[in-house]
């Protein structure tokens, strides 16, 4: 399945279907591997082989209907695996994780984002929908910390994706379920493990976000991810994790600790040839802090600040998407589909003869 194409991103095993791969966002079945579609017994055996003898993961699958794990083929590839129950049978999706940690330039992101690796404390967030490259971006930033700083890094992941070797930094990677029972427990333990930098694979609940805020307030640099579409929705999502009575305090704490939000969208290139990233970058300067403190962070307001903060490395989605259309990198249809304000983008392109 990996050899079906140079850019396979996911392997999918589903009862009643041939083994399927995702290539540049498109699904393609691999009939050469099987003379007939997979059966429920086939996918159950595949799931059992991937899980192995991990009793805790088996229990999670039985109780919750899905489980996450990592899997590796030595010398070939690593995968982030999700096994789930559907219509009483197992299905499996395996995300391909590159064996080499990418850098920001290779990901198509501005290299000035490397400045985030030089921060001494605060919160750096990568956001975006599924398969938008958040994990790769955070891995690139962690690798930059690892290369440049003599420090202690602890990661808390579900599951471990990129494998980081010790470079200038000492790095310990902990996996949910096999190394720790929960992310909050691992964050609590990290306070006694003397890290300078903490990476949490994603923010899922109030307790995790509270402990990330505490870690940043006590002098740690924290990297994490959220499945939110843009900077404004990221802040809304964080606040929604807390009771209404707490939100004014949380906004003030975010204003003091949040340093950078990088939101990503992957779009198909014009004429094929893979996908290209558009990134929205919000740096927390004095104006953004004031907006947070005053509860004035609507999307139009933050977009205005990002436009005005271009000299600080800020950028907003529709501005970047507009550039890609003018460069011929993406089609107008793709731009409209992925933009935050489709009508506004269409008008700007029309006014400029785009």
CATH superfamily of the largest domain: P-loop containing nucleotide triphosphate hydrolases
Strand order of the largest sheet: 9-8-10-11-7-12-13
Radius of gyration: 21 Å
How many separate helices? 13
Indicate the overall shape. Answer: globular
Q: Helix and strand succession?
A: EEEHHEEEHEHEEHEHEHHEEHHHHH
Terminal-residue CA separation: 41 Å
Number of domains: 2
For this structure, what is the CATH class of the largest domain? Answer: Alpha Beta
Class derived from helix and strand content? alpha/beta
Oligomer: single chain
Q: What name does the CATH topology of the largest domain carry? A: Rossmann fold
Instruction: Characterize the main sheet.
Output: 7 strands, mixed
Helix content: 25-40%
Description:
The chain is an alpha/beta fold and 354 residues long. The protein has two domains: 2-97, Beta-Lactamase (2-Layer Sandwich), CATH 3.30.450; 104-315, Rossmann fold, CATH 3.40.50. Helices cover 36% and strands 25% of the residues. The strands form two sheets. A seven-stranded mixed beta sheet has the order 9-8-10-11-7-12-13, with helices on both faces. A six-stranded antiparallel beta sheet has the order 3-2-1-6-5-4. Helix 5 (183-190) packs parallel to helix 6, helix 8 runs antiparallel to helix 9 and helix 12 (332-338) packs antiparallel against helix 13.
């Amino acid at each position: 399945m990996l050899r079906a194409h140079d850019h396979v991103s996911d392997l999918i095993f589903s009862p009643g279907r041939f083994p399927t791969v995702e290539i540049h966002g498109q699904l393609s079945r691999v009939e050469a591997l099987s003379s007939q579609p997979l059966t429920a017994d086939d996918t159950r055996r595949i799931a059992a082989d991937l899980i192995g003898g991990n009793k805790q993961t088996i229990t999670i699958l039985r109780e919750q209907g899905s489980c996450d794990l990592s899997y590796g083929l030595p010398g070939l590839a690593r995968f982030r695996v999700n096994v789930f129950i559907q219509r009483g049978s197992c299905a499996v999706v395996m995300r391909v994780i590159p064996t080499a940690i990418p850098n920001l330039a290779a990901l198509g992101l501005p290299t000035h984002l490397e400045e985030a690796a030089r921060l001494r404390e605060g919160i750096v967030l990568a956001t975006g929908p599924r398969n938008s490259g958040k994990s790769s971006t955070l891995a690139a930033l962690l690798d930059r910390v690892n290369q440049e700083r003599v420090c202690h890094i602890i990661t808390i992941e579900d599951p471990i994706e990129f494998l980081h070797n010790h470079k200038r930094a000492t790095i310990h990677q902990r996996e949910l379920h096999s190394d720790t029972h929960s992310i909050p427990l691992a964050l609590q333990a990290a306070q006694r493990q003397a890290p300078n930098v903490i990476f949490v694979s994603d923010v899922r609940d109030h307790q995790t976000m509270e402990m990330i805020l505490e870690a940043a307030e006590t002098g740690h640099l924290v990297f994490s991810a959220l499945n939110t579409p843009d900077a404004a929705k990221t802040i809304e999502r964080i606040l929604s994790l807390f009771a209404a009575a707490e939100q004014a305090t949380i906004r003030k704490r975010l204003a003091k600790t949040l340093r950078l939000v990088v939101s990503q969208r992957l779009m198909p290139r014009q004429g094929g040839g893979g996908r290209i990233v558009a990134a929205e970058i919000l740096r927390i300067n004095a104006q953004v802090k004031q907006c947070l403190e005053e509860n004035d962070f609507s999307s139009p307001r933050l977009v205005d600040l990002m436009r005005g903060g271009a000299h600080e490395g800020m950028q907003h989605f529709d501005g970047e998407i507009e550039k890609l259309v003018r460069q011929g990198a993406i089609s107008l249809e793709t731009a409209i589909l992925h933009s935050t304000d489709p009508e506004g983008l269409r008008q700007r392109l029309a006014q400029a003869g785009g």
